[in-house]
Specification:
The protein is of the alpha+beta class and 774 residues long. It is built from 27 helices and 20 strands. The protein is elongated.
Length: 774
Amino acid sequence: MAKKKAQVKTQNYSVYLRWFWGLFLFGILAVVLLFFSASLFGDLPDHTILENPKTNLATEIISSDGKTLGKFYFNDNRTPVDYEDLPQHLVDALIATEDARFHQHSGIDGRGTLRAIVKLGSGGGASTISQQLAKQLFHGEGSKNIAERMFQKLKEWIIAIRLERQYTKEEIITQYFNIYDFGNNADGIKSAASIYFGKLPKDLDLKESAMLVGMFKNSSLYNPRRNAEGVKNRRNVVLAQMQKYGYITERVKDSVQKQDLSLNYSPESHREGIATYFREYLKKFMKDWIEKNPKADGTKYKLYSDGLKVYTTIDSRMQQYAEDAVQQHMPKLQAEFDHQNTPDRNPTAPFLGLEQSEIDALMKRSMRQSERWRKMKYDLKKSNEEIIASFNVPTPMTIFSWKGEIDTIMKPMDSMRYYKSFLHPGMMSMDPETGHVKAWVGGMNYRHFQYDHVKQGKRQVGSTFKPFVYATAIDQLHLSPCDELPDTPYCIDKGKWGNMEDWCPGNSNNQYGGTRTLKNGLANSVNTITARLMDKVGPAHVIDLAHKLGITTEIPEVPSIGLGTVDLSVFEMVGAYATFANQGVYTKPVMVTSIEDKNNTILYQFTPETKDVLSEEVAYVTVKLLEGVTEGGSGTRLRTKGYEKWRHEYNEIITGYPYEFDNPIGGKTGTTQNQSDGWFMGMVPNLVTGVWVGAEDRAAHFKTITYGQGASMALPIWGVYMKSCYADETLNISKEEFKAPEELTIRVDCSEEAAQELIDDETPAQDVPDDLDF
């Protein structure tokens, strides 16, 4: 009897087994038929689409030293990498976690497929990497409807097989890493490595690779900024999978699982990161280039989605040093400015010397020029009365401070006044021979201040214009730095050079006496010496030289331009000074060396633009004059040993900077009327740098010359920047002498010993024009 019952059970089991295999074979046959009738499921991508998936690729901005400065993109911050750029443990982590039999199947894994069928109604199953790539490329998130999801799954199978036929395993893995959205604008592995760890993919270590692979499960849920604990747990699951499949040892797994995430979150947005002002300039450059350079088929390149590569001259190291120098100096300078402009010391702060009616007019103009006015007037169609009233309504806002952003409630009118109290920097650094711009700092914080003070802004240049007068005189009159002129009050008569009245510039310290050499006159920025030289050569010749030096701004033909009354940009001034350092040859500043498409085809190649402006001798003599500024003039603090001290009126001491430069440096400080603008132009043989500092409105300025001069406002930024550049020996910034011409007919050494040598050698004295007023 027992035997008979056993037979019945065996027979029943056999029936079930036959049914199972029958259904299974039927399912396989159905899948095969479905594959052959793929058209039933609508359009499926052919191999051409697979080779060129429709993904948006960000335009990448690349520095001269191979670093990514930033990107242009709308929604997809994606820059593809090659398989060789992926570290092995990153690939191992992906395979161990997502598709352990990746190298054994051809797009569909049998076990994974069965698991997918079983779990289809509860969120799907384990797809292969090829299937997941197919999903990412062609239909994204799976449908919630079971029937639709079944059709999607069948499409994934078909596409996965096509992918496997068309690509190697390495190419599939690379595409998968490039296509995935890791959140926080981290589209693709290159952006993810940069944003979360500040690295290139090839530099990721094991724990970083495991964290990023863990995010493939759900980047929204496993967001390291919002769910650090969950991300760490998920990372440890990845490490356990790697140990399970033999990619790492248990000892390594246990060690790494104990470590923190060690994020170095570096967001990549248009208003954050490095070289933000330069990137904004570059956007305009690229839009203009795109307009003039269509594709072969006549269509235009898309800056935000065609994956262009823009190779720039900016050196990421020097750019960082420049931004650091600004960040180090400006808060200290601002502290003194704020102290001088506190309401108890200046009731009309920060506008020294203005009547209340003048301040009201200035604020009214600023209100009408504001973005708030534009939006309310033209977008919201508000009346002038409504707009004006809104400026006096307390509003929640986030404002800038040197101690970090502040969330506050403030009237828009008060916030405008608050922002007008800030001093702003503009700085550019350039190789004079190649014209390559190495650093560009257009302001102190692009998120809050978008105005670029390198190329967009123009301000009075003060005494930094004087070398153009001296160079003109040397070129035309063959003067020597050792020639002397009287330091006495001097006037140019009305009408002589087009001036409407007599021009009688005084020295800034109202002190006169004796004679000065040209070298001493420029070093100490003596106005009377410049006025005498201007009277001899005339404004027209100075303007002509300035334009040949690359200055494009229109300059009025009046003698006062010699003292720097004209408004020029940092960009123009650096290009002009670079001509002196480059032995009289003007090289047009260049920011972009080449542009490539996503396939690395060169679309644009920079061609240098140069022209001879001055003879080598005149350029060299001008440089020797500029060296005098840092040897015994307004730039001598660059030679300071130890630390300089800044002492406030209320006895607070700010420690300055130990420069201690002992190499040849040409330079010129500039200070405008009422201490509104401070300039410093500094150069060594292979690097010319210009720095400007001032407030948004000229009416906001320092009360005293102590802090309101170029030597205090701008020179320290140059000093800190150059200290960093010299400390980085990989940059090879020159400490050598400026190159002298082979034949030098103009005396440049003004020492008594050099003069005596001339007498001993019976060298004829320097010819001096008869018309000079000695």
